[in-house]
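Subgroup meeting minutes
Present: P.N., E.W., G.H.
Scribe: E.W.

1. P.N. recapped why we're keeping a running log of single-chain structure predictions: easier to compare across weeks, and new members can see raw inputs and outputs side by side.
2. G.H. added today's entry (811 aa).
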Amino acid sequence: MRQPKGGQAGAQGPWLFGVRHHGPGSARSVRAALDAVQPGAVLIEGPPEADELAHLAADMDMRPPVALLAHATDDPGRSAFWPFAEFSPEWVALRWALDRGVPVHFIDLPATHTLALRAADEAAGDDTGGTDGEKAEEAGNEEQPPRPHPEALRVDPLAVLADAAGYDDPERWWEDVVEHRGGTGAGAEDDAGEAALASFRALGEAMGALREEFGDGGHTRDLVREAHMRVRLKAARKEHGDSVAVICGAWHVPALALRTTLTADRALLKGLPKVKTGLTWVPWTHRRLARAGGYGAGIASPGWYGHLFSAPDRPVERWLTKVAGLLREEGRQVSSAHVIEAVRLAGALATLRGRPLAGLTETTDAIRSVLCEGSDVPLALIEDRLTVGDVLGEVPAAAPAVPLQRDLERLQRSLRFKPEAADREIDLDLRKENDAARSRLLHRLSLLRVDWGTPAAARSGTGTFRESWRLSWQPELAVRVAEAGVWGTTVASAATAKARSDATSATHLADITALAELCLRAELSEALPDVMRALADRAALDTDVGHLAQALPALVRSVRYGDVRGTDTGALAEVAAGLAERVFVGLPPACTGLDADGAQELRRQIEAVHTAVGLLADTAAAQVDGAGLRQRWRAVLRNIADRESAPGLVRGRAVRLLLDEGTLDEDAVARRMGLALSPGTPPPDAAAWIEGFLGGAAGGGMLLVHDERLRQLLDAWLASVPATAFTDVLPLLRRTFSAYESGVRRTLGELVRRGGRAAGSPAPGTEALPGTPADGFGPGLDPERADAVTEVLRHLLGDLVAVGAGDGGPG
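Output recorded in log:
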């Protein structure tokens, strides 16, 4: 059927208002046009199932940005979003109709078909990738309909019109002809409605020409969507007459103006697949509206567009004032003169570039030059906080939701734990009831794959009473909550059922131990017995010592955490002790035949097991023989340290751990180091031993500073390494010593410089000062000078210093 060149209906209606989604200029024009024509009904592009939810847009607790969420009831992960911002033309039309009691309906293809068609496309392999959320969001976008055939040539109508007008940037063209068009903004003249209607007629004619030239433009699914829109439009005209206004994507206007029969349109819709769906409103964010968030109909600068829509006048001046305020909050010196000069520069740039008003490009250039002094660092902050922004919408409690969502909202209110879109870090003190409950909620949500928070490194202390979390609530988490609803109606019951299922399906021992740790942190006492049974069964069947060594630390942390929280972890401690014994038996034989990567991995495992054994012996004394466990582990370390077939890296680490434990004295360590660095040992092996002994663990550098014998052994070995082998050992040595703090490296360098090859003697041509120790540093203790600070230390440290001074020392 031939497309008409126009596309706008007659002056008496129906009126077809073609818009750009999330365009503030379109939104202002829609409001002005509706005020001018006063339609008896308003039709909006969107899923018809949302008609029953439309009234919630007028609720006092509804604050955009929000989105309609449709999901398959039997597969909540299959979902679609229709987002609305305050500056979205569809939202403006919806609120206009509700505020005036005018009937409002959504007329796009029903979500029951949209989700089913998506499933069919994916099953046929017609899927271009991306996450479920990203694919779903495209369903509400006229420029990117769900799952178009990739081989089809798709036309970007804005790009074609911009090119015809001589623009190389569709965004800039749209700003110039729509967003910056006068007469339709806040405080507009009396003819704002006529100007808006004229602009819609012009845009409809332009789209009509494009449809006549390109047909569906490669948007093959649009033919079905547009057929359904025409069916709904005809039904509305039958009920309300011609006094009907339609707000839809501009691309669809010519298709809705076509004169087709109801029979022909229904034939296009016959046989479409269906799935049972549920709809609700969910909060959305400005960041999720941005293209960077993966939204198909996204815009580059939602914060800027929101400002353009809400600013009553002088948008550039008001925007630059916001920017100045942000920079001042960040400690930058920005005066009113800076703002005035930036406004002038933005206007001058717009004039030079032939634009009617300064747009975001000119404003950003002015900000960079004047307010940021040419630096992109503060400019990145402005783009993140203002140009995009972290605005999070709100949805009233009356909106439909799965029971799990209701329980989560109840917990958030009771814990005063409001979701926010912006990233933020919180510290929780688990000794406080409210903080402990927040921690429990976050861990349970993590188990349900609702990642509202992710654990972060604690900013103060490493005790088990403190947790740090990085929080960020993203809209797609609403889908995750709906998915998790299959496990239960409350967060606690759903997390318990999910933990039991994960324990049954886990294939690796480390996964089950991590699950046990999470169950303790989430206080899922009902799930823990099932997890423990799965853990015992898997541990009995797993013979890989590497798997056992990976699983032990998490299991021991679980024992320790339960001990701190007062949880009975006796069975857990017994399993951990049995796992440790199996590691003790299997670890020495596993030290042979390893390459460099294997040796590094085994070294990390030995360190983790060493820490785990210490924690287990300290926290589970009632269930295990702590002293015996430590003694057996030390015997394993001795075995590894003296095992010639083990890599030097592993042997050196074992010796270091024994030294730190106090099991080996300095003489024994010096003897082993002398053997490892003897002439018969290949230089690379000797360097690996040094890395194992001195690298990684804290204090390796200070050990060399204070132990002259070890320093002399290392110095003598370095002097004996042949020139041909030195380049082979140099990377290992650099890796070892580069981990030391700069002060430690400086001290070692000073010792070598003053001591020469004989590290304990003065440098040639110098004499040691009286009282100077052999290592070349300054005079020994001066009792008079030490006594002078005793009184100050007594005030600072209290009686502890006084006791030391009473014993005859300076404290």
